Amino acid sequence: MFIRTMLFVCLMGGGTSAVHAQQAAPSTASKVEVTGNAVTPEVNTNTLSAKSLTVGSDLDTDTNTTVSVDEAAFDQHDLSPIGMYKGADVVVKSVIIGLLLASLVSWAICIFKSVQLNIAKRNAKKLLKHLIQSESFAKANHTLLLQQGDALTLLKATQHELQLTGEGLTTDEGLKERLVARLERVQAALSANMNQGTGILATIGSVAPFVGLFGTVWGIMNSFIGIAKTQTTNLAVVAPGIAEALLATALGLVAAIPAVIMYNHFSRVIGSYKAQLADILTAIMILVSRDLDRKHPDAKHIAYLLNDEDAADAVSKEL
């Protein structure tokens, strides 16, 4: 009886453990999937999503850090013209200062030459008008004593030569040759005086771009040296130095382009002034030649060339 009772208890305990094993089997099967002989573990999506969020947050942090570094690099550099000048190298600063001075010199010459040429051309025009309307050199010289202008130097040179020639004997042809030679030299001197300053404009117009290019090359060279020292190719670090270097080229063009335009303009105006001086020289020689012919022994009236019958009759009666 006792043995039967022990067997019954053992059977009851084994059944209970089998039931517990069957209840726990579904939870284990949910985690492990059996396919043939291979066992594939189930991926826990919650864990992966948490890890992906962690990685994404790390990437965002790195991106924000990079952007903040770039912004900080740009904030450290003032990219205005004055700021780029302050941050430039000593050589680049010297180039910038030189180009600014050259530009100021060009505009000063432009203002001075404009005023000088306007006054000279106006006085030369008045002088030429009086010479054309005058009957003799003596009357023209007396009328223009109160006028001013460089062109009056031609009249003074003519009067001086007449005074020197009057001290001795001379011929008409000799006097004319001496007057032409003297007046041509005075005309050349006046033209050379009017050309003063234009050579500086030509020099600035031709040299300023190369000076600006030198400053740019020097600044870019320093930028590459900075890249080698910092061992970074970040644009935020390189861009300010390159911008400072390119500022020199920009200022070179700013100084050169107006200088070239001014030089071409003044060349045309001075050419027009030289033509006026040539006309004045011709008018003076006409007056002198007219005065000489009036006193020449072989001189004769040319009223018949004017188709003036009354004057021709008067001339014939005199003869």
From TrEMBL:
Keywords in alphabetical order: Cell inner membrane, Cell membrane, Membrane, Protein transport, Signal, Transmembrane, Transmembrane helix, Transport
**InterPro entries referenced in this protein's UniProt entry, alphabetically:** ExbB/TolQ_transport, MotA_ExbB_proton_chnl, TonB_ExbB_1
So which residues are the signal peptide here? 1-21
Where is this protein localized, as stated in its record? Cell inner membrane; Membrane
Transmembrane ranges, per UniProt, are 90-112, 200-221, 241-263
Chain ranges of the MotA/TolQ/ExbB proton channel domain: 165-273
Q: How does it sit in the membrane?
A: Multi-pass membrane protein
**Where does the protein principally reside?**
membrane
Taxonomically, which superkingdom? Bacteria
Q: Specify one Pfam family.
A: MotA_ExbB
* Quaternary structure (record): The accessory proteins ExbB and ExbD seem to form a complex with TonB.
Q: What is the protein's known function? A: Involved in the TonB-dependent energy-dependent transport of various receptor-bound substrates. Protects ExbD from proteolytic degradation and functionally stabilizes TonB.
Q: Provide the family line.
A: Belongs to the exbB/tolQ family.
Q: Which PANTHER family match?
A: BIOPOLYMER TRANSPORT PROTEIN EXBB, PROTEIN TOLQ
- Entry-linked NCBIfam families: exbB
Protein name per Swiss-Prot or TrEMBL? Biopolymer transport protein ExbB
Q: What is the lineage of its organism?
A: Bacteria, Pseudomonadati, Pseudomonadota, Gammaproteobacteria, Alteromonadales
